[in-house]
Fold these 2 entries.
Entry 1:
Amino acid sequence: MTQPDFQQQLRDVALRVTRPRLAVLEAVHAHPHADTESVIAAARTLLPEVSHQAVYDSLHTLTEVGLVRSIKPAGSVARYETRTGDNHHHVVCRSCGSIADVDCAVGHTPCLTASDSHGFVVDEAEVIYWGTCPECSHRPQ
Amino acid sequence: MTQPDFQQQLRDVALRVTRPRLAVLEAVHAHPHADTESVIAAARTLLPEVSHQAVYDSLHTLTEVGLVRSIKPAGSVARYETRTGDNHHHVVCRSCGSIADVDCAVGHTPCLTASDSHGFVVDEAEVIYWGTCPECSHRPQ
DNA sequence: CCACTTATCTTGAATCAGTCAAGATTTCAC
DNA sequence: GTGAAATCTTGACTGATTCAAGATAAGTGG
């Protein structure tokens, strides 16, 4: 993934290629599961003067078109990743909040068929596994 | 579920039986999936002078002991329910935010076995189905 | 290559759910 | 009934996210 790749991604979804968006894309790609503050910091190493608002806007826009995906586990602020469209899920550490990717056990679009969805038209199943990360379980308390 | 039942529930988990807690338990039981503000309002119909802080405290405490469960779908504030311990999940309407219960398709503790959990010790799998509720899909836009 | 339209960005203020803290009350065990 | 400790009230505060207005820059057509 290089600068031109990100530019192409933006063009492919008919979005204007702006420096803030490139910086955000690159930042999220380099720091999967980073929260907004970290994305802002990372983006600023590439483009020192980006406003936090531009980052928020970019993240929203990129999320809408599907170039980034946002996850908001309960008790955590929003986090972002560029791995999209492959229906993977996440393990979240209850203790330190760290996140790892998990391919679903049941194959593709798992659990997507709810037994009784009360007439809802379901288009996505989001799974969050809660537990303890290796680091936190080794260091008791 | 009557007042004495709620009192007993509190005693069973060694919590003091206070009027705010009873009001909150009853409110959540009567309004499944209600957000905090609604719980406060409902609790105040039973106990007019409860402080919002007491409701927050009660919700936290009751959640810790497992008498209520909290859900926080992305983009929504915290919501609460008294149906606990049966590993059910939720469908959330992207359009209006309404929530319905869903028993998991795969049986009990579904999907709980992630294929590769990166060394995490997983103790719970939370599933959120995203879609459109009957009302919103009938009324286009 | 230039001008124009409009999306996007900057700046700075505002919102709002949720939290913190100190002192007053209430619960429950004895 | 009494006392210790948990719980509640009051009121201020935090911090992630959003709103709004004007400035700037991307892409289009000439």
Entry 2:
Amino acid sequence: MDGSDARGAKRLRLTEALADLVLEEGLDALSLRPAAARLGTSDRMLLYYFGTKAEMLADVLGCVVARFAAHLAGVTRNVRIPPHQMVGFTAELMTSEAGRPYANVWFEIAARAARDDKIFATAAELMAERWNEWIVRSVHFPAGVAPRSAAAMMLAIVNGIILLDSTAPSVAAAARSRVQSAAA
Amino acid sequence: MDGSDARGAKRLRLTEALADLVLEEGLDALSLRPAAARLGTSDRMLLYYFGTKAEMLADVLGCVVARFAAHLAGVTRNVRIPPHQMVGFTAELMTSEAGRPYANVWFEIAARAARDDKIFATAAELMAERWNEWIVRSVHFPAGVAPRSAAAMMLAIVNGIILLDSTAPSVAAAARSRVQSAAA
DNA sequence: GCCGCCTTGTAGCATATGCTACGGCGTGCT
DNA sequence: AGCACGCCGTAGCATATGCTACAAGGCGGC
């Protein structure tokens, strides 16, 4: 019984290891031979366990999204964040050392999703959805506002800030200062 | 005189054509042989005029950024947009048929800039900077607000919205509705 | 012991990619 | 006419990439 499913177990372990790799080096690190070398195996094995690179990619993306959701959930375990602090809080979270890897792959996934790449599109949608749900759960919205819409707005602002933060830090800093004053 | 600089002129024409290509198909379309085929020449010629692929990339990115700035300027020629409409206006602009190509390459550039890719980093910074300057010029900010910071905040929100729009349309729609009500 | 299956290594293939070497063609200058 | 130089095509190289073919080793069941 364990022997029959050992393959699945190993596939999962490989997926986790590949997710580590992607989170610190980006999607380009998923080339079969280099990636396999990092894990101490061969491209031959990756194909054996995943069948095809596309399937491997799908598994790894799913893993990354799951980890991201778990990461978010872990940060706000039993904690509610006041609405006016959520944007700043999340922006800080995503630009911190722990959050940057997720932000970076998020950008890569989103960029490819924008070209009609189905596998990235589904991953991106899932990731954004999870992210938004997390905001809904972590913020206590005042009565009268639609949580999902308000959360989406916050998510958009956070996304914009971290995107600018990765490209034009001075512009991002200007935007952040604005968030500060708005929150006060 | 014209003969001596014919090379530079042709290089510029190639750059423009490559920019067209990139804007409609993405950065991956810049592989030498496929790109050259699209332009009716050979990879040999691209190397001849640009010297190296890296230089070609730099030229094309510069061209794309310049065109983007020109596009923005053209839309608001002699027009000022009220502050409370700028976010919605720009979001609409970038998700329109004319704007999407710019948004898509913007995401690609930003994603690569986030990994320490210098050439993309400089292009991304320039593009964000130009974008922000355009907002500063196109909006008449009330006295007492720092134009650059306010523009940066708007830019962040727009970025977030179009990013979500390309990945999770339903979330983006929720965010947009929020912008509408805030503007009213 | 032997057979069969799961796992894994070694080679190889077909294609793609950036770049180079070499040579031909035409134009303008002397 | 001859010659040099700018332009360009053909081949080729070295490497990378996804994937396949073949075979060897190991392990459990009969």
